[in-house]
Amino acid sequence: MKLAMIGFGQAGGKIVDKFLEYDERTGSGIVRSAVAVNTAKADLLGLERVPDENRVLIGQARVKGHGVGADNELGAEIAEEDIDEIQSVIDNIPVHEVDAFLIIAGLGGGTGSGGSPVLAKHLKRIYTEPVYGLGILPSSDEGGIYTLNAARSFQTFVREVDNLLVFDNDAWRKTGESMESGYAEINDEIVKRFGILFGAGEVTGDGEVAESVVDSSEIVNTLASGGVSTVGYAAEEVENSSDGGLLSRFKSDSTNDSMEAANTTNRITSLVRKAALGRLTLPCEIDGAERALLVLSGPPNELNRKGIERGRKWLEEQTGSMEVRGGDYPVSESAYVASVILLSGVHNVPRIKELQQVAIEAQENIDEIRQESEENLEQLVEDDEDELDPLF
Questions:
Q1: Which portions of the sequence form the region Disordered (predicted)?
Q2: pLDDT classification of 345: cutoffs 50, 70, 90
């Protein structure tokens, strides 16, 4: 699937940078174009792979490149005011070559949580391609203002995009882990899961052919349910061999071949269960999901149609959905067989209920919260009196 990725805010920009690194390392070709938008000059300067001409500094007249200090109302206002600056960079994206837009943002801060819904609404008004969001929920130890931002932004973001894919930091931070190392690992997990999902169906040019093809239309159809989506992942290391491929999967002329086929099938069905019932990007009960997509990735000789079909049927039973798609994504050099499951239109999500409650309670002390945001912004400006060489 070819995506135009737009990282909004600090977290969004870093994750887009990680996706570009993933593309370089794997040759998956997911990112057709990459853009980073921010109100903080330092965050844009810290990116490594997003092209300089695709880094957009907004709000210079309001915050002078210092960021918005976790004030997501200010972030939304600036995005509205400077939407033409963002659009001028998006105009350079060859939209006829992309399958969808993906706006990536941390929902706890100010710039991403405030600006990403504004951009989503703008893109949907102009383009016919789907506009998806990838929203990162803050962990509970980041503070009340970040939880409130996430609660407010989530409600707006999910309304403005065609589907909101969610990653909940609270379910992934390890106890005692530093903020910096913790989020670096989390970003790796995000890119690994969504990289395999969006990489399915892309032609690698080395002659590998999937038995059950998953292309961009399968992903689009799965996400067409709208609402909120979560992704599961499980992998197992295998002994890779250079032989095999599509033709070898149909050979079963000996007892040994039959045993290998049975082992392959059992491994696939086991990985499907682990992916669905293990740690999801947004923890939830999988029953009631409106649609699902199963993607198996790994060496061609470790994938077979029977295992994929069994995994798909099991997923149908567990979700209660009749719209469960499935297929494989052969990668000959891989040392792992991996299962990725996309669950779209999930409903039974405790974290979302918690955020909704936070949003309701926040209305009672909104003045106090606004004062905290203003103090954060003032302190940020005082501490960061432009020590960087201007590049914008």
A1: 373-392
A2: very high
Annotated binding-site residue? 12: yes
Q: How many CB atoms lie within 10 A of CB 178?
A: 9
Does the predicted model carry a pTM greater than 0.85? yes
Consult the annotation and say whether 11 binds a ligand. Answer: yes
Q: What is the DSSP code string of 144-163?
A: HHHHHHHHHHHHHHHHHSSE
Any idea what the CATH number is for the domain that residue 287 is in?
3.30.1330.20
330 falls within a domain: yes
Q: What is the DSSP-derived secondary structure letter of residue 99?
A: S
Q: Do 41 and 174 sit in the same domain of this protein?
A: yes
Is 87 annotated as contributing to ligand binding?
no
Range of weakest confidence among 168-172, 174-178, 252-256, 311-315: 252-256
112 is in an annotated binding site: yes
Domain count, the chain: 2
Q: Are residues 151 and 192 in the same domain?
A: yes
How far apart CA 342 and CA 359 sit, in angstroms, is 28
For residue range 34-61, list pLDDT tens digits in order. 999 999 999 999 999 999 999 999 999 9
